[in-house]
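Page 37, continued from 36.
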């Protein structure tokens, strides 16, 4: 799978570890940075990853900042991106099954590297549940975006 990834300075180490882990599993990674521990704005990297997902340059996006909150907010400003901030494995399953999320936000503060790897694995492997209610709800999100964004 082709995955775009990005982080701010607080998450550089975990982003690098996750990128290497995903590559070892055979995924193609488009790393948008940051590549330094120097203070930077999470928005710059979140937008790049979300635009890759929007433009079909990546099937999924993974974003990491101190809390994950800022990354999830900026990613969700990009049309057709459904980014979920996830802290637990069951959230990773549910956001894929119910929301067809295509972008994942993680916290460098509240999520350990091992937890992040587990969350990402479950999130990548869980398909969208094309049941009537889930499909209907995602279609409503898409329709709203088409009409208002």
């Amino acid at each position: 799978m082709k995955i775009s990834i990005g982080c701010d300075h607080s998450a550089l180490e975990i982003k690098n570890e996750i990128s290497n882990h995903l590559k070892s599993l055979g995924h193609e990674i488009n790393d948008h940075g940051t590549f330094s521990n120097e203070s930077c704005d999470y928005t710059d990297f979140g937008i790049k990853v979300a635009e890759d997902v929007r433009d079909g340059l990546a099937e999924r996006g993974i974003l990491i900042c101190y809390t994950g909150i800022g990354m999830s907010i900026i990613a969700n400003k990009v049309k057709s991106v459904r980014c979920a901030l996830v802290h637990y494995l069951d959230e990773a399953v549910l956001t894929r099954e119910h929301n067809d999320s295509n972008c994942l936000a993680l916290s460098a503060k509240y999520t350990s590297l091992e937890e992040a790897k587990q969350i990402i694995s479950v999130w990548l492997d869980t398909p969208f549940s094309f049941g009537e209610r889930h499909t209907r709800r995602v279609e409503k999100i898409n329709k709203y975006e088409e009409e208002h964004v």
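The radius of gyration is 14 Å. Flag for discussion at group meeting. The mean pLDDT is 97.
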